[in-house]
Amino acid sequence: DQQVKQNSPSLSVQEGRISILNCDYTNSMFDYFLWYKKYPAEGPTFLISISSIKDKNEDGRFTVFLNKSAKHLSLHIVPSQPGDSAVYFCAASARSSNTGKLIFGQGTTLQVKP
Amino acid sequence: DTAVSQTPKYLVTQMGNDKSIKCEQNLGHDTMYWYKQDSKKFLKIMFSYNNKELIINETVPNRFSPKSPDKAHLNLHINSLELGDSAVYFCASSQDIFLTGINSPLHFGNGTRLTVT
């Protein structure tokens, strides 16, 4: 029973255009959402997060949008750069559980073409 | 200096063997984790230790036993390895258990690819 799903295994965009990565979740107890980026042969690294009390968080070229009613979040990268090519993981946590449990999706591989 | 380091990077072994993966973090974090990335690419938490105390123990076969000799180390020992144990295992650490993104992100090691033949 996957509580966090990324239904697009891969995405290819042209350099300079917008990349939109999507994520759906089922557990309404989740109150914090994060995106991690992973290069081959490396561990995931934290990219950006959003609390459930917000619907948007922006950090430079990266913006995360949260739609709580639809249980959906998305990561926008504008403009996309070849160095953004990586696997992007969506993750969610329920801080009230006080366990540090982070639930990850299965990742979306982004390829940005020069 | 690598913040979270795990060894070995690759581990190839036969069914039935016992093996260990070591993990060390130099970030001064209180919480450490083991995650497993299976063939379907999902990253699933296995164990979590906070100040050397086990706080998360997911539905993992008891052939897997974590050991935390101190806050900076969390090793994973696997007995009687099976084919289905083949995966990439990631160690991670965080400042606390709340994982609130930028204030307490999860720091991952580079993974150990375990192949059981």
Topology:
The complex is a heterodimer of chains A (114) and B (117).
Chain A: E1 4-5, E2 10-14, E3 19-25, E4 32-38, E5 45-51, E6 56-59, E7 62-67, E8 72-77, E9 86-93, E10 102-104, E11 108-113
Parallel strand pairs in A: 2-11
Antiparallel strand pairs in A: 1-3, 3-8, 4-5, 4-9, 6-7, 7-8, 9-10, 9-11
Chain B: E1 4-7, E2 10-13, E3 19-25, E4 31-37, E5 43-50, E6 53-57, E7 64-70, E8 73-78, E9 87-94, E10 107-108, E11 112-116
Parallel strand pairs in B: 2-11
Antiparallel strand pairs in B: 1-3, 3-8, 4-5, 4-9, 5-6, 7-8, 9-10, 9-11
Would you write up a description of this structure?
- The complex is a heterodimer of chains A (114) and B (117).
- Chain A has 114 residues and is an all-beta fold.
- In chain A, 0% of the residues lie in helices and 54% in strands.
- Chain A contains no helices and 11 strands.
- In chain A, the strands form 2 sheets. In chain A, strands 2, 4, 5, 9, 10 and 11 form a 6-stranded mixed sheet that branches.
- Chain A is globular.
- Chain B is globular, with a radius of gyration of 14 Å.
- In chain B, the strands form 2 sheets. In chain B, strands 2, 4, 5, 6, 9, 10 and 11 form a 7-stranded mixed sheet that branches.
- The model of chain B has no long low-confidence stretch (mean pLDDT 90).
- The termini of chain B are far apart.
- In chain B, a hairpin with a 2-residue loop joins strand 7 and strand 8 (73-78).
- Chain B has strands at residues 4-7, 10-13, 19-25, 31-37, 43-50, 53-57, 64-70, 73-78, 87-94, 107-108, 112-116.
- Chain B is built from no helices and 11 strands.
- With 117 residues, chain B is mostly beta strands.
- Chains A and B meet through strand 4, strand 5, strand 9 and strand 10 of A and strand 4, strand 5, strand 9 and strand 10 of B.
